[in-house]
Amino acid sequence: MTLEQLLNEKAPFLIEEALQALSRAHLKHYEEEGAAKRKAQMQALYELTAESIKMRDLSKLLDYVQEAATSYYKDGFDLHEIQMAFNVLEEVVWKNALKELPASQYADALGLISTALGAGKDTLATTYVNLASSRKMPSLDLSELFTGTEGRN
Predict the structure, then answer these.
(1) Which residues are CB-neighbours of 85 under 8 A, at least 6 positions away?
(2) What is the distance of C-alpha 53 from the center of its chain?
(3) What residues contact residue 127 under an 8 Å CB cut-off, 6+ apart?
(4) What is the value of pTM for the model shown?
(5) Do the Cβ atoms of 105 and 1 come closer than 8 Å?
(6) Burial of 66 per CB tally in 10 Å (0-12, 13-18, 19+)
(7) Numbers of helices and strands, H then E, in the chain
(8) pLDDT digits (tens, 9 = 90+) for 60-69
(9) Which domains does the chain have, with CATH numbers?
């Protein structure tokens, strides 16, 4: 069996296992949105990850992640909540790859999984931080705590 075969043949099982792991984390926003939406999102992430690995092309995955990050940010999700979906998916795929693949394929398989989901997590974090930093945040008034703050607001 190859990694691509594993991802294709075990897709429903791997997605369900990742969803179970995500539900054990009891993340507020994921619980609020419901199981059906959570499943659809995990399935999309899984399918795009598998396609990226098969095609050796991250563009569709990263486009999806950028759009999802924007949506999640607007919906009030914390960055750690969103990254948890990537982390549980990566853990599930790694665990099953180590169980199902011959040892001679471990390095390539784990490298491909880590590269695809790592690029996704990086895009997620970058997009999220850019959105958060573009908001005008009020500054703290420290004038009563320190001298040298006069006229600096």
Answers:
(1) 18, 22, 30, 41, 42, 45
(2) 16
(3) 65, 66, 69, 70, 73
(4) 0.83
(5) no
(6) middle
(7) 7, 0
(8) 999 999 999 9
(9) 3-133 (1.10.490.10)
